[in-house]
Amino acid sequence: MHRRSNLLIVLLTISFFSCSDNTVDTNSAPELLLSVEGLVEHLGGDCSAVQVRTRILGSSDLNQFNKLKIELNGTSDADLSSIQIYYFVNGEQKYLIDLPSREEINSTRTIEVNSPDFAGEIYSRVTLKSSVCTGQIYFLTLRDVRVSGIR
Prior knowledge:
It is a single chain. With 151 residues, this protein is α+β, with helices and mostly antiparallel strands. The protein has a single domain, classed as Sandwich (Jelly Rolls). The protein contains two helices and eight strands; from the N terminus they run αβββββαβββ. The protein has helices at residues 2-18, 102-107, and strands at 31-45, 51-61, 67-76, 82-89, 92-99, 110-114, 119-128, 138-150. The strands form two sheets. Strands 1-8-3-6 form a four-stranded antiparallel sheet. The protein has a four-stranded antiparallel sheet with strand order 2-7-4-5. It is elongated, with a radius of gyration of 24 Å. It starts with a helix and ends with a strand.
């Protein structure tokens, strides 16, 4: 009988330690830091001029997060268009994201980046530019920008 109880203890111990940990880490859920809903920017024009618009999206403290999740809805039909989200440190521009072409703008919805040691204003810059001159009116639209922090 003693041998059976030892075997039962061994089996219970193995089964207890082999079970996976199914606890949910509530710290890893993204925390919304910044949100600009709806239309942020919309530019339209032909190839004769480059259009650039810069906007303050808001202020946030990014120091306490390991990663940032940046969600946006951007579309453009101009080949040299770009979208950047950035901040300044000691007068130097630092990018959170840089989408330098129509292909990247149209295919990007969510980006995860390492969170910088920064607290302050965050900006967006959109640039409408095309290398093709056909008389066509080109466009660039940026909507629904959200920045979330992940611990």
